C-alpha cells in the first residue's frame, strides 16, 4: 500500500516557462511570438531541448542558456534566477498548477505523506519567492538540491527524501517529468509515474488513480 507521494517541482507543481511565453513577452514588452522555443510542446522548435533529452546538457544548463537569451533581448545580463523571478515570482501562487493543489489536498486528507524532491527550487526562485508559494507550506518534507548539492538521478537524493518522509521506497509514488529522474527512482525501488507536462490534467488524474484518491 502506498503511504506517500513524492513530487518534482518544475513542470509538475509549477507551470513551465514554455507555457508562460505569452506572459514573458507581455511583462518584458516583447512582440507576441518572439519566443519560439517550446520544449516538449514542440520539440522540433527547440534543438536545445532535444540536446537536453539526450543528456548533452543538464536542465540547469538548459534554463541558464534560455535565461541569458531572454536577458539579451531586453539588453540585460540575466541568469536563470533573474528569469524565473521576473516571470513567476510576481504572483507565485498563480503559476502553481491547480491540479497539484487539489491532489496534494486529497492525499493529505487521506493520511498520505507528501514531499518534494527538487534539484533547483531555491537556486531558481530565491528564498523569498519560495516562502510565498502557499502550496509548499502544505508539504511534509522538502529536499532541495540547492542546499543538499545532491541532484537527481543520484540514488542518494531519493534516499534523503525517503528518510525525510520516514517511508520505504516501495511505499512511495514518485512523480517527475524527466525520464532520467524516473529511471533513477526506479533503481532505488520507488513506484514511479512519468508526468507529461503537455497534459497536466491527465497526469494528475493518473496520480489520483494510483493513490486511490478519487
Q: Can you tell me the residue ranges where pLDDT is under 50 for at least 5 consecutive residues?
A: none
Distance between the termini: 16 Å
Assigned CATH superfamily of the largest domain: HAD superfamily/HAD-like
Q: What is the general shape?
A: globular
> What is the CATH fold-level name of the largest domain?
Rossmann fold
Instruction: Note the run of SSEs as H and E.
Output: EHHHHHEHHEHHEHEH
**Rounded radius of gyration (Å):** 17 Å
What structural category do the secondary elements indicate? alpha/beta
Extended strand count: 5
Strand content: 5-15%
**Average pLDDT taken over every residue:** 96
Largest sheet: 5 strands, parallel
- CATH architectural label of the largest domain: 3-Layer(aba) Sandwich
CATH class of the largest domain: Alpha Beta
Explain how this protein is built.
Helix 5 runs parallel beside helix 11. The protein is α/β, with parallel strands linked by helices and 214 residues long. Helix content is 45%, strand content 11%. The mean pLDDT is 96. It has helices at 21-28, 47-53, 59-73, 80-88, 98-109, 121-125, 127-131, 145-148, 155-165, 179-188, 200-210, and strands at residues 4-7, 113-118, 141-144, 172-176, 191-194. It has a five-stranded parallel β-sheet with strand order 3-2-1-4-5, sandwiched between helices. It is globular and about 50 Å long. The chain folds into two domains: 4-15 and 93-210, HAD superfamily/HAD-like (Rossmann fold, 3-Layer(aba) Sandwich); 18-91. The two termini are 16 Å apart.
Amino acid at each position: 500500500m502506498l503511504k506517500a507521494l513524492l513530487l518534482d517541482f518544475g513542470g509538475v507543481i509549477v507551470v513551465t516557462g514554455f507555457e508562460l511565453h505569452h506572459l514573458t513577452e507581455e511583462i518584458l514588452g516583447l512582440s507576441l511570438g518572439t519566443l519560439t522555443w517550446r520544449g516538449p510542446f514542440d520539440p522540433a522548435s527547440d534543438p536545445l531541448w532535444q540536446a537536453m533529452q539526450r543528456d548533452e546538457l543538464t536542465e540547469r544548463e538548459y534554463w541558464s542558456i534560455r535565461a541569458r537569451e531572454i536577458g539579451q533581448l531586453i539588453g540585460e545580463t540575466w541568469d536563470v534566477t533573474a528569469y524565473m523571478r521576473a516571470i513567476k515570482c510576481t504572483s507565485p501562487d498563480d503559476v502553481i498548477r491547480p491540479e497539484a493543489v487539489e491532489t496534494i489536498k486529497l492525499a493529505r486528507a487521506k493520511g498520505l505523506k507528501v514531499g518534494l524532491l527538487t534539484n533547483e527550487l531555491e537556486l531558481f526562485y530565491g528564498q523569498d519567492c519560495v516562502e510565498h508559494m502557499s502550496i509548499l507550506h502544505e508539504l511534509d518534507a522538502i529536499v532541495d538540491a540547492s542546499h543538499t548539492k545532491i541532484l537527481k538521478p543520484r540514488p542518494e537524493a531519493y534516499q534523503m527524501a525517503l528518510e525525510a518522509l520516514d517511508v520505504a521506497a516501495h511505499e512511495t509514488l514518485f512523480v517527475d517529468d524527466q525520464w532520467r529522474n524516473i529511471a533513477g527512482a526506479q533503481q532505488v525501488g520507488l513506484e514511479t509515474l512519468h508526468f507529461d507536462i503537455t497534459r497536466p490534467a491527465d497526469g494528475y488524474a493518473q496520480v489520483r488513480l494510483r493513490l486511490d484518491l478519487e
